[in-house]
Every structure is written in C-alpha cells, then in structure tokens.
Design a protein that fits this description.
There is one protein chain. About 2% of the residues have low confidence. It is globular and about 90 Å long. The protein contains 17 helices and 34 strands. Helix 2 packs across helix 3. Strand 4 and strand 5 form a beta hairpin. The chain is an alpha+beta fold. Among the domains are: 104 residues, Serine Threonine Protein Phosphatase 5, Tetratricopeptide repeat (Alpha Horseshoe); 310 residues, Kelch-type beta propeller (Neuraminidase).
Length: 622
C-alpha cells in the first residue's frame, strides 16, 4: 500500500491576512476573518451614519435613529423576534420603542456596530434596563458587573429594588447584604427618604438587620425621619410602620421624645403602643417571652494575619491568611490572604466595612537617599465581602485614614455611634520611643484632632468605647534603670469623657494585665486574659461603669494573651493567642482554639478551632 505523502505547509502574513502554502497542492489559503469582520461592521456603521442602505428607523419620544435590521437581529433577541416572525414591525419602516431612554438606545445600537460601550455610575441602570428589554445578554452581563463595582451605601436601595425587578441574582445578593450589614448608614442617605412605603415596610420586617451600638433605636429614628420628609402625605402610615418597630427594645429616652411629637399625640393608637412599651424600655428584665427579641444579623467573625509562634518580632514567622467563622454553622473557612503584612496595622470595621492602612517606606530611585526621593507610601486596603477580595488605593499621608498607622502597636477603638476612631499610645514608627498621644479620627467628616495625652506611658494595652466614653486599660510601661530594663504590668484604667475633655482615673482591675482583650456587652466592659506579673491568664473580670467596680466572672478554659476578641449577638468570643502547652504551664505555644462566653449564663464553652494557630492578629465582625 503506497504511503500517503505528508503535506508541507508554510505560513506568512500579507495585508492583514494569514497565508498558508500547501506545497503539494500548489495552493495558498488566505484567512482574514478578524479583518473582514471589522471591515464589514465599520463599513455598515459608516453607511448608517450617512443614512445609506438603512432599512429601519427607531424612534423614542420623537428622536430618530437609523439602523439595519440584520445588525439589530444579530445582537438582540427582541429585534430578531420582531423582524423574523411575521410581526407588523417586520414590514414597517418606522418603529416606536417605548419604556427606554433614547440615549440608552443610541449607545446600545452604537455598541452593536462598534463593540464599544462606555458604562458609568450615571448610565448603568438605564443601560441595563434597555438591555433587559431588548434582550442583549452580553450588555446585561457587562452592566451587572459594573453594578457590583459601583454599589455603595448611597445607591444600595435603588440597586436592591432594581436588581429584584430584573432578576439579577448576584447584584441582588450583594445589595441585600449591604442593606442589612450597613443599615444605620443607609438610613442617612437621600434614597432612604424617598422609599416607597411598602418597600420600607418590607425592610422593617427583617430579623437580621445589623443595627450597631444603638440597636432598635436606629429603626425607630429611621421611621420618624422617613415620615418627617413628607409628613402631610405620610402621617397616615405611622401606625402601620410602628407595628414593625420593636418598641420594647427602644430606649426610654427616645420613646419619650417620640411620644411628645405632635402627630404622635394626635394618634391615640400610636400613643398607646408607646405607653405599653415604656415599662420594658426602662427594665429589660420585665420583657415577656412572646415579644420579639433583638434583631440578630447573620454576622461572621474574620481573623486576619498574626504571628505563628509565641516569639514575635520583625523576623519571626507570621501569616497573611484570613479565616472567617460562621457563627450559625460553627465552621471556619479560609478566605484568601491579606495584600500586606499586618505586623503594625489594625483592621477597623466602620458601618459594616472592613479596612486597614498599610505604610511602607518608598524605595529611593537614587543610590544615595535625599529629601526628595525618600518618603512613605500609604495604601488603603478595603475588603469586599461579596467578591472576597481586597481593593487597594494609595492615599496621601495627610488624609485622616493615614493617621491609623501613626504609632506601632497602638490601641485602636471605634465609637460606632458617630464613626469615630481613636488611636491610643504605642510606639513611634521607628519603635524607639513610647507615646502618650491620642488621636481622634472622624471618618464621616474627614477630620482629625489630638486629644489630651494619656496620663502615663502605655504599651501592649487595650482600648474600647462604651457610651461614647473612651477607656484605656492595662498594658505596661518601660522604666529604664542602670544595667536593666524593668517592665511593670498595669492594672490601671483611665477614661476620657468627651463632655469633660479630660482623662479620669477609674478603679483598677483586680489583676494587672498586658496583651489583654476587651469586649463590651450591655454596658459592661470585660477584661479577658492577658499576662500578669507572673503568668498568662485565663481569668476574666467585668467592669460596671456606673458603680466603678470590677468583678471576676468565670474563667476561660485556656490561658490566653495577645488573643483576638469579638462580640456578636451579646456573646463574647476569645480566639487564639499565646498560651502554655498544658493547664499547669509547660512550654509556650500559640493556640488555634476558640471559646465563647455567655454573660447571662456566666459560662465559657469551646467552639470549632481555627485552621491556623495564631496570636497578635486582627479580628473584625461583619
């Protein structure tokens, strides 16, 4: 059997075509599909612009747009059905298009001819509405992708309702999550004030709204704000909306204030609802079981970065990994990595958004540093929960957020009532000198101020805000003596009162602690673990600001210092930290275990362990 001769091929380029030579057949095949497609489309677009060979005229509110049926049919299922199924429009030169904007139609037709579409915050919803109507799937996908990028608290409500109407599942899920996780901020937006009553009523029924420190007060305040925006036409909805507010969980002060409003006084039913809730607002112990409890957001605890061994320092092993704890499922899940090491930064959560600022020395372009080529780069890193990724943006060193990394290992506390961040003490960026400085960062107004210095030097301390008052607790100072360095562990507590404008000394803790965790539940402060003068602690004590007293509560199961602490749904979580290999002491170790404390039962119980042991990490709740 004669063997088949192998064909020899040789390729070359010629005028936007690829030529393939077949030596056996003595032929050349020229392929220029991309060139021909581009030439055909651009040629048709030129003919359209000149009004030549166009067979259809689209009109919107008197505005006219020439096009070719064949091009429209290729890109739009709407036009394909119109022109190929014997409909009247298939034989009509002029076709009126309703329910979409002319500018959107114009952009979509241009896209069909050029493949280019400019999408921005201002036009994305109009374009998506038009693409949905005309059934242009690739444009729907493009606009949905853009909506995921553009969504924020200022437009969340509009996108939430829009995505539900157009069945955009991914966009709806993100808007729904943002609405519930950042509800206090969303109620401050213009969009909230113009909500339809039925949509507002639907939102008020959600059990998993994240209300922040003000709890159900936020819900009642939002209803009153919505009513006052157009009181004459909306007053009739008052009774119906108040039924969805858990008035028994609102503070007595706010209930009294609302009751004194004239339009409330004139409504006997609403007055009675408030009067019935007043006793429970003044004494939560009287709450009957049939009344709804607090709204419980579907929160997760995020643990970010940290050290992998008990010895910590610049050259010691650390991790960039992030883990998320699902409270309902009691499960930990790895969530990628940090964009930068968190050795000296603190992750902060404000209004349901998690971020930190990374500071790095700018590399000099010249071998010899000068004043002009050496500086620092500040990068704002913001976490996107839906996309599970970090958005990074370089910011000026003079912005308010850049001050988050003014000191090393400072204590950072957030006042959620007014979105203020406090940065308390620590060391200078060089790590050489300790600081008494306290900075107040007003995120909403992009302003900062320096508060009076701490009364004494503190390092490895912790800070927390309760009832708008800033507490700085524990830590140590370094007293230098001839020949040795002595570290004194502190039990002292100082409180900054914004109304007084000064620091006040409070009752000392029962046990001195550095590297401790702090949590606040029902107005009490809990000091958790840490290191005393002698050993790491499993003890926990509770501070009553009204009585200025500390009381021991149940111990944790493990000694923990430099641990992560989080509060969620009135429970306290103690995570990881430095410890010992056994209950009696032993070698130093780093834990992956975690436990949760119920203040009502006064008991700790273990929960699932993290995948990675770590200490000195950042912890945030979203």
């Amino acid at each position: 059997m004669a063997s088949k001769k192998k064909e020899k091929h040789h390729t070359f380029c010629f005028q936007n075509h690829t030529g393939t030579v077949n030596a056996i057949k003595d032929s050349i095949r020229f392929v220029g599909a991309k060139h021909i497609a581009k030439k055909t489309l651009s040629g048709q677009n030129e003919l359209r612009k000149q009004g030549l060979m166009c067979d259809v005229e689209l009109t919107v509110d008197g505005n006219k747009l020439l096009a070719h049926r064949s091009v429209l049919s290729v890109h739009s299922e709407y036009f394909r059905a119109m022109f190929t199924t014997g409909m009247m429009e298939s034989r009509t030169k002029e076709i009126e298009i309703k329910e979409i904007e002319f500018t959107s139609l114009e952009k979509l037709v241009d896209y069909m001819y050029t493949g280019t579409l400019d999408v921005n915050k201002d036009n994305v919803q109009d374009l998506l509405n038009a693409a949905c109507m005309l059934q242009i799937e690739e444009v729907k996908d493009i606009c949905s992708h853009c909506l995921l990028r553009y969504i924020d608290v200022s437009n969340c409500l509009g996108i939430w309702t829009f995505s539900e109407i157009h069945h955009l599942e991914e966009v709806y899920n993100k808007a729904n999550h943002l609405l519930k996780s950042r509800f206090p901020s969303i109620t401050q937006q213009e969009e909230f004030l113009i909500l339809d009553k039925n949509i507002l009523q639907e939102i008020l029924t959600f059990d998993d709204l994240n209300l922040g420190m003000k709890s159900e007060n936020v819900v009642l305040e939002s209803v009153i704000r919505w009513l006052n925006y157009d009181l004459i036409s909306r007053a009739k909805h008052l009774e119906e909306l108040l039924k969805h507010v858990r008035l028994h969980l609102v503070s007595s002060e706010l209930l009294q204030q609302v009751r004194d409003e004239m339009y409330i006084k004139d409504n006997a039913v609403c007055c009675r609802m408030i009067e019935e809730a007043m006793p429970y607002a003044e004494d939560r112990q009287k709450l009957p079981s049939h009344l709804n409890g607090p709204r419980l957001p579907a929160s997760s605890i995020y643990v970010l970065g940290g050290y992998l061994q008990s010895r910590t320092g610049g050259n010691c092993p650390h991790t960039l990994t992030i883990e998320r704890y699902d409270i309902n499922q009691d499960q930990w899940k790895e969530m990628g990595k940090l964009p930068f090491n968190l050795e000296c930064q603190n992750v902060v959560s404000v209004n349901g958004e998690m971020f930190f600022v990374h500071k790095k020395l700018k590399q000099p372009k010249l071998k010899i540093p000068t004043f002009t080529n050496v500086g620092t780069v500040h990068t704002l890193c913001t976490y996107n929960v839906i996309q599970n990724g970090w958005k990074t943006k370089e910011i000026s060193q003079y912005t308010v957020l850049a001050l988050l990394c003014s000191f090393k290992q400072s204590a950072v506390a957030v006042c959620k009532d007014n979105n203020v961040i406090y940065v308390c003490g620590g060391k200078e960026p060089t790590g050489s000198f300790m600081q008494k400085s306290v900075l107040k960062l007003d995120i909403e107004n992009d302003e900062w101020s320096q508060l009076p210095n701490l009364p004494e030097l503190r390092y490895n301390h912790s800070a927390i805000v309760v009832d708008k008052r800033l507490y700085v607790i524990g830590g140590n100072d370094v007293s230098v003596h001839i020949g040795n360095v002595r570290q004194e562990v502190k039990s002292s507590v100082v409180m900054y009162d914004p109304e007084e404008g000064c620091w006040l000394e409070k009752r000392n803790m029962n046990t001195p602690r550095l590297g401790l965790g702090l949590a606040a539940v029902d107005g009490y402060i809990y000091a958790i673990g840490g290191i005393s003068d002698t050993a790491r602690q499993k003890t926990v004590e509770r501070y009553d600001p009204n009585e200025d007293t500390w009381t021991y509560v149940s111990n944790m199961h493990k000694q923990r210092s430099f641990l992560g602490v989080a509060t969620c749904n009135n429970l306290i979580y103690a995570i990881g930290g430095k410890s010992y290999s056994n209950d009696d002491g032993g070698a130093r170790t780093v834990l992956n275990s975690a436990e949760v404390y119920d203040p009502i039962k006064d008991e700790w119980r273990f929960i699932s362990s993290m995948k990675t042991p770590r200490c000195m990490m950042s912890v945030s709740v979203l």
